[in-house]
Amino acid sequence: MSRCWLDGELRAYVDRELPATEMEAIEWHLRECDVCAALLRELGSRAARVGVLLEAMEYVPAAAPVVVRRAARWGPVLVAALAAACFVLVLWLPKRQRIVTPPKAQVAASAPTTTGNAGSLAAGEPRRRQDRQRYRKAQPQYYVALDDEPIESGVVVRVALPDSGLLADVIYDEQGRPRAVRPLN
Amino acid sequence: MGTVITGVQPAEEFVLEPAGGEQRSATWLESVFHAHYGRMVGLLARLVGDRAQAEEIASDVFCKLSHRRALMKTPAALAAWLYRVAMNAGLDAVRANSRRRRRELEAGAENLRTGAGGGALEEMLARERRARVQAVLARLKPRDAQLLLLRAHGLAYREVAETLGINLGSVGTLLARAEAEFEKKFRARYGDDL
């Protein structure tokens, strides 16, 4: 019987990394030596198991966990954004009502063409009607320019036509000319 | 009268090179970079599981090489030095990444619970297997880990011997020992779930 082979040589035999003559010699020896054959099987199966494990080291792009991390990261941001939106809404709503309701200081009560009863809704009216009126006034109403010249300054006068009951805000410039008008009903 | 320089240390010898040495070393560094960078990044990406991190580590290795110009004179030791430094840096990164790996595994488990993604289970299992292999590799002797990784990367025995600076005839022996050690540590840590 030929000589037994070392485990390193048998391991190289598994990988077929030996010269052809040695490969052939080992093949012949394995036919007659059970010890070397058993050692070869052990080395080969271990190499296969370790090889499978090391195959797990193949590069895997980090895709799936990112979804969860993003969700976790965006969660607080979304909550903060929602809170900020609510805060802005709370601030904006009363302001919007103030804008729609003309300030009394802007209404020239002494103007000859005014009715002088712009604030009459506030006195003696049922609360419900006041609210309805305010809601109606909250609809966006825009001033319509009566000419092409820019308006630098002026006075807002609330006027009413006695017969038809039409109500409007008119902007008068410094020369007393009406420059823009906004219907209120 | 010329200045007499005494006691020149090996690290300083290239600093005192005549003009033209700088250009020569730059060319040398470039050729080494072209010869080894791709393979090094591939190995490191397999080891650390992150290509960007692998490129970063490889860049650091070549930065260190630029300060080790003495290796110009010993090309045989160059590859061994390069891969030893790269693998050690990679194994350090694997140890440092353990927290990130745990987070990724937790995220994978969360994906599994929520049913996000098609192969959530397979993905999570693959990540766990990879984390286990990395953990065991990080506990092996550096040369054993290098040997296993180089072989798993498909290098022939001759290339492994050149890269690690070992005798070709001893690759089989060292590989068999490294595999036995890997399996022993893996079983000790994770049981028979190979």
Task: Describe the protein's architecture and organization.
The complex is a heterodimer of chains A (185) and B (194). Chain A has 185 residues and is an alpha+beta fold. Chain A folds into three domains: 7-55, no CATH class; 62-100; 102-183, no CATH class. Chain A has helices at residues 7-14, 20-32, 34-55, 64-100, 127-137, and strands at 144-145, 155-160, 167-172, 178-183. A four-stranded antiparallel β-sheet of chain A has the order 1-4-3-2, with no helix packed on it. In chain A, a hairpin with a 6-residue loop joins strand 2 (155-160) and strand 3 (167-172). The longest helix of chain A has 37 residues, at 64-100. Chain A starts with 6 loop residues before the first helix and ends with a strand. Chain B is mainly α and 194 residues long. In chain B, 73% of the residues lie in helices and 0% in strands. Chain B has helices at residues 21-48, 51-66, 75-96, 98-114, 120-139, 142-152, 157-164, 171-190. The longest helix of chain B is centred in the first third of the chain and has 28 residues, at 21-48. Chain B is globular, with a radius of gyration of 21 Å. Residues 1-18 of chain B have low confidence and may be disordered. Classes of the chains: A alpha+beta (185), B mainly alpha (194). Chain A binds chain B through residues 6-12, 15, 17, 43, 46-47, 49-60, 62, 64-69, and chain B through 45-47, 49-51, 103-104, 107-108, 110-111, 114, 116-117, 120, 123-124, 126-127, 129-130, 132-134, 148-149, 152, 156-157, 169-176, 179-180, 182-183, 186, 194.
